Amino acid sequence: MIARYSRPGMQSVWTEENKCRIWLEIEILACEAMARLRKIPASDARAIRRKARFDLAEIARIEERTNHDVLAFLENVASYVGKPGRWIHQGLTSSDLLDTTLAVQMVQSADILLEDIGLLRAAVARQAKAHKLTPMIGRSHGVHAEPITFGLKMALMYDEFGRAEHRLRAAREDVRVGKISGAVGTHAHLDPRVESHVCRALGLRPAALSTQIIQRDRHAHFLAALAVAGCSIERWATEFRHLQRTEVLEVEERFAKGQKGSSAMPHKRNPITGERLAGLARVLRGNALAAMENVALWHERDISHSSVERIILPDSCVLLDYMLAKTTDLVAGLQVYPPAMEANLWKSKGLFFSQAVLLALTEKGIARKAAYEMVQRAAMECWQSAREEAAARPDPATCLPAFLKASPEIRAHLSQKEIDRACSLEPHLRHVASKFRKLGLG
After folding, report:
1. Among 434, 435, 428, which residue's Cα sits nearest to residue 149?
2. Would you say 110 and 168 are in contact if contact means Cβ atoms under 8 Å apart?
3. Are 116 and 328 in contact (CB under 8 A)?
4. pLDDT in tens, 301-313
């Protein structure tokens, strides 16, 4: 497990200490439930609650002999309890402990990850509001399309991680299931009310039906939700990396004092956080695929899934916790350059007004094909013009409106005032506020 990446909260979920603590609580709760049902003496259940404990080092020594982690744990616990310890694990099988504990750990992890997503969305919301009306060029195929605002771009990120939150909540509910049903899930040696008591006390739902294990489609769903969240992180890491390219430089990762970008080139300021996040998202996707491979098991159980889950479940939770924290830091420290956005906006010389002019012509009764070709001719003449401007905003004489006004076929249908009205940023900004309101961004 890449524990060095995680924060203390997530680290503690996947420690041996936490796992054995949950195992012990399950065993104690099962004994207390059996005592309520008068299956075992109440005094023994009280003694078990009072005396039961474990020693991780001793468990490890016993496991060297038994080659079985649960039996090693049970032997160690029984050594503290004495005679009442005979009731511990009565009617249970190892997977009752293992799978119910995994459910608790996944729920604990999901709660931390949901908090992480909330912190990320708060950071994104601050950037969205700060740049609500900061115009920039929108790009499709990497090519200038029509204007948007940087606030809208960040609002889109805010909305996307809202869906990540929704998916994680659904996956959390899917794995919030325990089982105390015995060797093949039939409750042959254990009253189902014991299962209900244990699960309720742990904040879980009893499985409607289980075999020796909880079915692994639930775990696959959980890891898929984590992987898709990682995909969203990669999507935005890639976006910011593109916007930091020297030729664009509309945003930039924070570059701390004393930070270095290259061992060879002192001038370098690289998007290393975005690149790291993009790479780590691949690990989450690989782990999700492994979880899907775990769904198909032999009959009521085999253990081919077990060794895989010891890696992919803690690693994925720890890794996404780290990635969400780093993405939050990235967004919160993002250096935004509105002047560069304005300069890039006008590099295409107002060609982004082409659709507005096309629509103005069709509203005059011109056939769409003819109108399209009229505007395209003026646009291509503008784009192919050899006159280059060094200023942030080029000379109006070199921009599309000038070429439109110089086109006799267009002027036959549109006045200069109508062309100017079509060539305005206002339509691209008029619905920004309503979109923000829909997302609850104000």
Report:
1. 428
2. yes
3. yes
4. 998 898 999 999 9
Query: DSSP of 224-244, one letter per residue?
Result: HHHHHHHHHHHHHHHHHHHHT
207: DSSP letter: P
**How far is residue 171's CA from residue 110's CA, in Å, rounded to a whole number?**
9
Beta strands in 40-142 (DSSP E): 135-140
Four-way CATH pick for 351-422: 1.10.40.30, 2.60.40.1930, 3.40.50.10140, 3.10.150.10 = 1.10.40.30
The strand pair at 135-140 and 143-149 is best described as antiparallel
Whole-angstrom distance, CA of residue 39 vs CA of residue 52: 19
* 436-to-122, 127, 149, 278 alpha-carbon distances in Å: 14, 13, 12, 28
Q: Is 275 exposed, middle or buried (0-12, 13-18, 19+ CB in 10 A)?
A: middle
How far is it, in rounded angstroms, from Cα 200 to Cα 29?
10
Full-model pTM: 0.92
Q: pLDDT tens digits, residue range 57-115?
A: 999 999 999 999 999 999 999 999 999 999 999 999 999 999 999 999 999 999 999 99
At 107, the amino acid letter reads V
- Report how far apart the first and last C-alpha atoms of the chain are (Å, whole number): 41
| Residues in Cβ contact with 123 at an 8 Å cutoff, skipping those fewer than 6 apart | 328, 331, 332
> Where along the chain do its domains lie?
3-12+17-87, 94-187+203-342, 351-422
Q: Residue 417: exposed, middle, or buried by beta-carbon count in 10 A (0-12, 13-18, 19+)? A: exposed
Active site residues: 141, 262
| CATH number for domain 3-12+17-87, candidates 3.40.190.10, 1.10.275.10, 3.30.1300.10, 3.40.50.720 | 1.10.275.10
CATH topology of domain 94-187+203-342: Fumarase C; Chain A, domain 2 (1.20.200)
Residues 6+ apart with CB under 8 A from 367: none
Q: Which of 40, 59, 58 is nearest to 48 (CA)?
A: 40
